[in-house]
Amino acid sequence: MKFGTSGLRGPVTDLLSGASGAYAKAFGTHLLQSGFASPGAMVFLGQDRRESSPAIARDCAAGLAAVGLVPVDCGALPTPALACHAMAKGAACLMVTGSHIPADQNGLKFYRPDGEIEKSDEAAIAAAVADVAPLSATQADAMESDGGAALDAYRARYAGLFAPGFLEGKRIGIYEHSSVARDLLADLLADTGASVLRLGRVDGFVAVDTEAIAPETIARFGRWCAEHSLDAILSTDGDADRPFVADETGRQVRGDVLGLLTARRLGAGTVVTPVTSNTGITEALGFDVVRTRVGSPFVIEGMARAARTGRHPVVGFEANGGFLTATPVEIGGRTLSPLPTRDCVLPMLCVLSAMAEAGTSLSALVASLALPVAASGRIEHFAREDSARLMAHLTAAPANVTAFAEGLGTVQKVADIDGVQIFLDGGSVLHVRPSGNAPEMRCYGEAARAEAAQALVDAGLERIRAFAAATPA
Question: Maximum Cα–Cα distance for the chain, whole Å?
């Protein structure tokens, strides 16, 4: 079990062998000891559609009940819906989800009454896990149900955000797979005037990583767009805190581009985003920019500082598309309360609204931003020890970075906020970093042309593999 960039992750076998109940119990203990909850307080529980999630949720309920808290079952729903509802009630919550990772793994996301836990909370929870022996689930049998209130409140937050019929004449596809937001998205598009096509629904679980969509899936989007004359395709990852949007050709609109378009639509004063977001997102676009390490806790920390001293409204987004708000935002004639956790619905609606307002295609809207072209890739099942050795090697001496980038361009500068980001002549960028929540190495490239960006990623991945092979542990 390991805390990563967003929550706790681990194999299902471990979670169902006592770890989930133990960590939920430790979370409850931390809430009580830190004053975030009192005995008898409600803690809202949600889950994604993985086969293992209901059983893990029951174990978590038993762990919470064991320390005198009252678990409330919210069922399968988007993580931002659960967090938004709990925050409105002044309560903590716990989401059972492995997000985008394969179904043989799962995880837990913890929220205090004021939002996502911080890194200090993670340390306290980990320290409080004294026993991973299975807990009795009898206390969870009486778990209360919220009766759908959390999902209803989230739907009401965004229903009618823009004028009825603002997508009149548009054709929007929803790639449903196993997303907990698949029915919600159809509901929210019902009064927009768009023709909605529901595509690719499955009964099992599909691991969708919005930063690493499989080429065959992108090809399927292209076929759907051509066959049904679609203007866009919408989807999410498993727990619906990351949006996926494809344009009228089936090509993915990167998450950082979704974030930029949303920030502009909201009139943001300060944008907080990780170093993996496009380097073309700068103050020249009309707002202050704060860069952070990868992971929502770091974005939230940056937003909190900006909310105290920066220009309002303060928003944040990640390269995976998850959008966060630290201060109230005005849009569609209403004020949305802050939601400092990754959200998928707001960026989808804002981007579709921007497209309609511009009277152009989604691809043309994206092209008008004139950003560097970005690409990304990953090596799965990459030993964490190898990742650590590579990072230590690259940060040990400038000559090591120069050698790693040999043949790709002349190194202009290096940033190590998260991993190693190598800025090359001609404006291209190569960035390598270990994943924070899985045994993977991530690689990112930016260049003036798509082919050049992908070539950088391919070269970076090849050099990562070569380093691991040449310097075994």
Answer: 64
Q: How do residues 176-226 score in pLDDT, each as one tens digit? A: 999 999 999 999 999 899 999 999 999 989 988 887 788 899 999 999 999
Instruction: Order the strands of the 243-246 sheet from edge to edge.
Output: 195-201, 171-177, 232-236, 243-246, 252-253
Catalytic residue among 6, 99, 179, 235: 99
CA 30 from chain centre, in angstroms, equals 25
pLDDT in tens, 105-130: 999 999 999 999 988 999 999 998 97
Q: Residue 280: what are its φ and ψ, rounded to 5°? A: -75, -5
Q: Could you confirm whether 99 is annotated as catalytic?
A: yes
Dump pLDDT digits (tens) for 32-64. 999 999 999 999 999 999 999 999 999 999 999
Helix, strand, coil share of the chain (percent; to 5): 40, 25, 35
* Alpha-helical regions (H) of 200-283: 215-228, 255-265
Torsion from C-alpha of 145, 148, 151, 157, nearest 10 degrees: -120
